[in-house]
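Final report, closing paragraph on structural work. Over the funding period we assembled a curated collection of sequence-structure pairs, and we close with a single example.
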Amino acid sequence: MPVVRRLITSALTLAVGLLAAAPVLAQEHRPGGEANLVLPDLNSATFLGVGGHTLLLIGLVVSGLGLLFGLSIYQQLKRMPVHRSMLEVSELIYETCQAYLQQQGRFLMILWLFIGAIVLLYFGRLAHTIDPITGADVYGFPPLKVAVILLFSLVGMAGSYGVAWFGIRVNTFANSRTAFAALEGKPFPCYAIPLKAGMSIGMALISVELLLMLIILLFVPADYAGPCFIGFAIGESLGAAALRIAGGIFTKIADIGSDLMKIVFKIKEDDARNPGVIADCVGDNAGDSVGPSADGFETYGVTGVALITFIMLAVREPLVQVQLLVWIFMMRIVMVVASGLSYFINEGMAKARYGNAKSMNFEHPLTSLVMITSGVSVVLTYVASYLLIPTIGGDASLWWKLASIITCGTLAGAIIPEFVKIFTSVDSAHVREVVSSSEEGGASLNILSGLVAGNFSAYWLGLTIVVLMGAGYYVSLMGLEGLMVAPAVFAFGLIAFGFLGMGPVTIAVDSYGPVTDNAQSVFELSTIESIPGIAAEVKKDFGFTPNFEEAKQFLEENDGAGNTFKATAKPVLIGTAVVGAATMIFSIVMVLTEGLRPELVARLSILHPPFLLGLITGGAIIYWFTGASMQAVTTGAYRAVEFIKANIKLDSGAEKASVEDSRKVVAICTQYAQKGMFNIFLGVFFGTLAFAFYEPFFFIGYLVSIALFGLYQAIFMANAGGAWDNAKKIVETELKAKGTPLHDATVVGDTVGDPFKDTSSVAMNPVIKFTTLFGLLAVELAVSMKGADYAHTGLTVAMTIGFLLVSMFFVHRSFYGMRISKKA
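Its predicted structure, as stored:
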């Protein structure tokens, strides 16, 4: 492909050019930051009579058990009964997902070349250290150390990619098994199978992440570990950002292309004759499984790396550093146990209550799982903190204060989903208002009511996050200042850490949605109702008489619950990005202010014009990103609709669309997803370099700004989209008004909401974290090439302008190169 060749050439040219310039550009640079982090001896502190290093070996065992849990459920799902007609559909979806992921893997490696060039330049030629023997200045790490950092960036990216692959395999097992289990006429299996699949993904994902981070902490040499953590985090952030962006574009191209056929041809949901339905199912996995899995993996890792970096830069005493490092990793281990334990408790309760029920509210047991996990996590947080750090820094009260700060985040993981339901649940007043407005006002008032829901949600969720962060801040004033500088920043990092305290459960309820959505599609695509003698066959082979009408009703209702809980996970993930960004930005602040020198700290103010200009610039990037991602969806959906309308066969007597036509729709989705992703990624990549080179305090303002603008934009878009989605679900399941003008209006609203909730909003999280993490390197690179007091040289001015022009080219291309032309 020409674009691939051009990108590889560009990446290699960038690497060679920068490396060639490095000896000329290297200036006197103050040691500090992630390049010089050296982890302390973890056995220098004891916990319950055991050295820290030895204690953390327990984490390897827990990680192994978590992986075993995930793989065990994987095997259980694989062995569950399923009719061949449904199995064929789910395997076709998986095969098509495989092809998509293989392509994405190749493109990820191309993107990595750009990151690798910067890592190679900074760590290989410019990172400033001091020789411990001679005291001489040394620029650049030894080749072996640079190679290890590059290796861990690949490991991080491979981790994001690998858990995404595991997620689609589990989900494509679960979708056909859920569809088939619904035929028994009982709702409980429709709930239990998707949740089991989600827990498999959640436990495997968190366990792999924990395992990899423990390997770096415990087995990588202390002077390598700090830079390796940064490389690992950048790699997983790159993987998550690319998979989230591309997956979000892909899934909504397919979804819109498939949904609009309901209006154009008055056909049913997931009509097997519609070649867009298979692409829609693949998109459910590409966008709602691959993206969240990679995103969750990256979020969990990046938050941990931010805290590790903070502890090493801001905590004064080496003994306290060890105590805090071991404590936060043990908290992660404990919370994996808490999630697994809570799942079994909740499952036992749900089975006792709903196991033989004829009807159920699918949201209730999911809500109780989140609440139970939150309660168990909070209790274990206090117990473990008391046992592990009864005294820290000579203060016997800090254990409960630190536990309380984490609890603010853990509570956020339970409270935020409840607030999200107010705006997205099928039972919420806002969603009912969307339906009511559609009855007389059609699509116009439907869209306006959805925008109202999104805007109100941003207010309430924003204040919720402020209250929880404020509580953490006030607790941090109760003695933490004696241990570290900027204790409030540490508190914000712990709150982000607590957001993910229920990591496996958060991932599980998020993964619930794509399975329920796919299960509905698998049921229709299998055309199982029309198979001759199917009732007798099922009775003979599986021992029950199928109930098709109840199955369809359960699957549709369960899809509404899936929509709601997909919506609840999004603000939790974006919240961690924003709250955690404060901790990551602190690392840059420490370097640029040379350990918080007052005269340099004064530049972090609107009285320093570059900082204010940076605050303004961040908003511009967020709004461009929103438009660019939605433009890719718009153009791709146009091409998908164009193809489907020309090739759908409704009068030929065919029961299903051809596999060839379905694959062509998938190819259209993939093409525009990748084009959109590259424009966005390279716009962000070169923009980050340009802003970092322009002025370092401008860059800090920029990072703060994208976090804040991104938070509210993402919450607004995600919840507006969720309201539109479930308004359509009410019309379909409760009002049973498919095919009516009311249904058409809600379908239009849903298609507007699709890129809102599943493209632009969800990608804000990895984009913010990737920009911040990559910014750690970019700003160090820029500072290393400048003179005293960050003064520009002629070459750094030229590089700033050059990077900005390249970024602006891709911004321009993200619309003008993606416009709908009359000829494809």
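The two ends are 17 Å apart (CA to CA). Residues 429-476 form the longest helix (48 residues). We thank the funder for supporting this effort.
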